[in-house]
Amino acid sequence: MAFDSILIANRGEIACRIIRTARSLGLRTIAVYSEADRGAPHTAMADEAVMIGPAPVGESYLRSDRIIEAAQASRAGAIHPGYGFLSENEAFAEAVDNAGLVFIGPPAKAIYLMGNKAEARRRMMEAGIACVPGYEDEDQSDAALADAAEEIGYPVMVKAAAGGGGRGMRLVHDAAQLDEALALARAEAASAFGSDELIIEKAVERPRHVEVQIFADAHGNVIHLGERDCSVQRRHQKVVEEAPCPVLTPPLRAEMGAAAVHAAKAVDYRGAGTVEFLLDASGAFYFLEMNTRLQVEHPVTELITGLDLVAMQIAVAQGSVLPLEQSDLKMEGHAIEVRLYAEDPARGFLPATGPVDLWRPASGEGIRIDAGIRNGQEITPYYDPMLAKIIAWGENREVARARLLRAVEETVLLGPATNTGFLANVLRQPSFADGEATTAFISETYGDDIRGDIPNGHNVALAASLFLEAEREAAFETAAYISRSQLGWSSAPLSPIPLQLTTESGTFEVSALNRRNVWSITVGDDLFAVEIAEKDGPALRARINGRTVDAVAVVHDTHLALAVGPQRLYFQRALAGQTDDMAGGGGRVLAPMPGLVVDLLVSEGQHVSKGEVLAVLEAMKMQHPITAPVDGTVERVGAAMGEQLGSGDLMIEITPEDL
């Protein structure tokens, strides 16, 4: 089982993370990439890179045959699947073995037994491990699932039997919601995992989501490496993860750890895996699922144990005995991780795409950033919107939280919208700071009122100053025989410069004057004195009405991206004669994000009601229903099944009834 080279069958931050450890061990690394990922950071980090197909995952990262061909052509000895894509596909693991390559992961049989939620539930119940009441039978008809939901009792969770990551998962409060939930869950599951099999589980109210990291070698040794609390979730996808769990006592930790080890032994597991539990307020816990791969949140375990889990995976795959026994495990301090997503909180967290204008990760004591992005890279709609992980370690939980909050604010990604402000807000919430967050935390804290970043007068004044500074610098560069000291000088009184700045939250009318390199900016009824005191590339320090503000900004002609603290603000400067061609309204239904039309439910001449589902867009592996904004008649269908749309493309035009 010895090998000296590894092909990483993945992309983005996890591919970069695996490459770093593999290279540190002296192993040759081979990256694979799609046409959309040409020139991506993971391809530059590897010793060799092989293109495996077009951008869609079904034609590239989910093509096991092309990945194995790439491994053989590059003389790789092993394949590491990372997480997502083919990492929990037993057929892929088996095909890797049959090709004479080493699969850095569990045996194919263990992947099937535990990667399929229905089979995993059956196996765990046989092993005597408590499971949430549910339905995992082979009859997948709507009628059978509806009967099961009634018998279990609402609310229930509809889940994809294969895969994880929140895809193919829907919370259903009553029978009226079930049909739509089943249809969407099946579609997402088939798209993401190649299987539309579903299970039903009782929805446990306000639990904690606690998972245990286990490791097993090929010699029968199985240990756990402590737990992670992943309770802060939105749409069943993890937002914040930490280790250890704030409420776990040593006896409960030992009990959950023993159950996780027992679960791994029940399927002859090998390698890294995670056994997930729901923990209720009484201290009772229930088996949820097992992820037969490395988890996104593995860095928090690494930071409190001092272990490199990827190095351990590689060692186990080469036949080595685990480097420690259970009694050797030591956990020191506390670690917390957040996931930086390309998504827009102001628009219901829809995925965001576009070029990365600036990527500047934070640094400092106890801070770790795992990322796979670079300046100028195009964020496409084809892949998961997670761009990076920001992790902090501290001697205790509060130190880790404070460090992480600062790191979130100082990590700047400008270009596509991100969830930076939302992450900072979560970390500031008193209930999170006190370690009280359950899986209901986000819904109870925010409800449907999650807003994007809204600029205040200071932000608008700074943006106006930066637009004008950039314009003045451009004029200076093209001017002849003008000294910098003459900028802003006039023998006659200066007239105010009018500006119209537009953001997602509204339009601002601004006027500006410059006196001795200090901008006098009027925003509405407020006056701001703005001086750009220091500037180092995109980083700057300004004084606004005597208050010092540190910021990062990128100006492109009439567009400006601005980072101030946790806020990420985007301004557009209107020029004379400029109009907004992207405005929707009335009965015009525009694509809210780039995506693939996977279902089109209306035709021209059809009557529709407000709220009725017209079409379904798939973006970044999630299904997004597109609904009618008004009652009326479909006048025009501008999209087609299977068409890839851009943000703002006209999908459907409806003539409202009141016209």
Short description:
By secondary structure, the protein is an alpha+beta fold. It contains 16 helices and 39 strands. The strands form nine sheets. Strands 14-13-10-11-12-15-22-20 form an eight-stranded antiparallel beta sheet, with helices on both faces. Strands 24-25-26-27-28-29-30-31 form an eight-stranded antiparallel β-barrel. A five-stranded parallel beta sheet has the order 3-2-1-4-5.
Layout of secondary structure:
Layout: E1 5-8, H1 12-24, E2 28-34, H2 41-45, E3 48-53, H3 64-73, E4 78-80, H4 90-98, E5 102-103, H5 108-115, H6 117-126, E6 134-135, H7 142-152, E7 156-160, E8 169-172, H8 178-193, E9 198-202, E10 208-216, E11 222-234, E12 237-243, H9 250-266, E13 271-279, E14 285-291, H10 298-305, H11 309-317, E15 334-341, E16 343-344, E17 350-351, E18 354-355, E19 358-360, E20 367-371, E21 378-379, E22 386-394, H12 397-410, E23 412-414, H13 420-428, H14 430-433, H15 441-446, H16 457-478, E24 497-503, E25 506-515, E26 518-523, E27 526-536, E28 539-544, E29 547-556, E30 559-564, E31 567-573, E32 588-590, E33 595-600, E34 607-608, E35 613-619, E36 622-627, E37 632-637, E38 644-645, E39 650-656
Parallel strand pairs: 1-2, 1-4, 2-3, 4-5
Antiparallel strand pairs: 6-9, 7-8, 7-9, 10-11, 10-13, 11-12, 12-15, 13-14, 15-22, 16-17, 18-21, 19-23, 20-22, 24-25, 24-31, 25-26, 26-27, 27-28, 28-29, 29-30, 30-31, 32-39, 33-35, 33-38, 34-37, 35-36, 37-39
Helix pairs in contact: 4-5, 5-6, 12-13
List keywords for this structure.
659 residues; eight-stranded antiparallel β-sheet; 39 strands; Rossmann fold; 26% helix; Glycoprotein, Type 4 Pilin; alpha+beta; Dna Ligase, domain 1; 16 helices; globular; eight-stranded antiparallel β-barrel
